[in-house]
Amino acid sequence: MRASADARLPVGSVRVEVPASSANLGSGFDALAVALSLHDTVEVEIVDGPPGSARVTVEGQGAGRVATDERHLVVRAVHRALADLGHPAPALGLFCRNAVPHSRGLGSSAAALVAGFAAGYALAGLDPTAQPAAARVLQGAAAWEGHADNAAASLYGGAVVAWQQDGRFDAVRMPVHPDVHPVALVPDSESATHTTRGLLPEQVPHADAAFAAGRTALAVHALTRDPSRLLAATEDRLHQAYRESAWPDTYALVQRLRAAGVPAAVSGAGPTALALTSGGALPGEVPVVGFRVLPLPVDDAGVRVLA
User: Fold this and answer.
1) pTM value?
2) Which residues contact 208 (CB under 8 A, 6 or more apart)?
3) What sign does the dihedral 218-220-223-226 (CA atoms) show?
4) What is the pLDDT of residues 121-146, one digit of tens each?
5) Rounded CA gap, 233 and 25, in Å?
6) Strand segments (E) across 54-167
7) Helix axes 133-145, 108-123, angle to 10 degrees
8) Cβ(222)–Cβ(176) under 8 Å?
């Protein structure tokens, strides 16, 4: 790709690395998430071509399945970020090296959006990891998804508490206790967030809502101060059982892990399960046939602009 001399933007190309994430962590539906050390890397360059067009190359996850033109999610996010800053959409060349599995509950779409918005801000000469640009990156990515948990984790790293107020999204970052060692258990099957959200009831019993509030608050303490409380903190009555039909094998695995004393939950919309182990190992008596076991340390950095 040959970079175009475009006086409208101070930077001609950028490279961005963004981590996967696991959301909910039990009862913290749309509120809690943690960044994981599994990364997508995107390289974005301004090229000669019709405004708003794009040429996309994808290696790894999603190759042969995702759009390779201006419809690609990262391209759309870059163009949206530039539009928010008052810049016309340039022609782009995009190279993606993807490690985050798609449609598995590990935040692949949020990672793509954060990468795209971060790249757009970087092309405009702004640091997307510093305020106030970071808050605008979060707003853009979260508004696209409708919730901020995954996007905030990919943006800030560590663990996050995310919320929405008056149409605006926000989040705070929390350092994760060093004794927390996440392990993702990834099946071959896929799941769509819009499908699993459709399985949730319009209302839940007041007792279950109170239970979720208590467990979510406890999860903040357990993740940051006292991992011995994680088994209780990751217990859920709010959403997992309602969605069991979408991923019965995952739900059964989560229950087996918990019965063996391992804090475990369905990761995001599934079908990946996440175990928050104390040493990175799973008990040998719990069968994990059909699942790829990926020890994934917490990513403390979040999105990074590499060049």
Assistant:
1) 0.94
2) 237, 238
3) negative
4) 999 999 999 999 999 999 999 999 99
5) 9
6) 54-60, 92-98, 159-165
7) 140
8) no
